[in-house]
Amino acid sequence: MRSPGRMMMGLGHEFSVAGLSNLFLTLAELLLLLRVVLKFFFTSAGGGFVHWAFATTNVLLAPLGRFFQTRRPHLPTGTLTGSPCSP
């Protein structure tokens, strides 16, 4: 018999499919939250932990990459050269 203390959030046995999927989804959500916080506060930091966090969460964001691409408009060559006040 299972004891109530071994239940994981009321989803059945702690090693059930629902329990393990809930664990992995929670971990993914926490990693994405960490990425948002690091992006907000440490945008120019190049430390090891920040690099690891971004490299790890790139895998989670890869499927969404083609939906949220930033498309740059095609500008003719030489449009952005010179000062902004030049004719």
Topology:
Blueprint: H1 17-41, H2 48-61
β content, as a range? Answer: under 5%
Radius of gyration, in angstroms, nearest whole number: 23 Å
Q: Sum up the overall morphology in one term.
A: flat
If you average the pLDDT, what whole number results? 74
* Low-pLDDT windows of residues: none
* Estimated structural class: mainly alpha
Number of helices: 2
Largest sheet: none
Distance between the termini: 83 Å
What is the H-and-E element order? HH
Compute the number of strand runs.
0
Helix coverage percent of residues?
40-55%
Précis, in short:
By secondary structure, the chain is an all-alpha fold.
Task: Provide structural commentary.
45% of the residues lie in helices and 0% in strands. The protein is mainly α. The model has no long low-confidence stretch (mean pLDDT 74).
Keywords:
mainly alpha, 45% helix
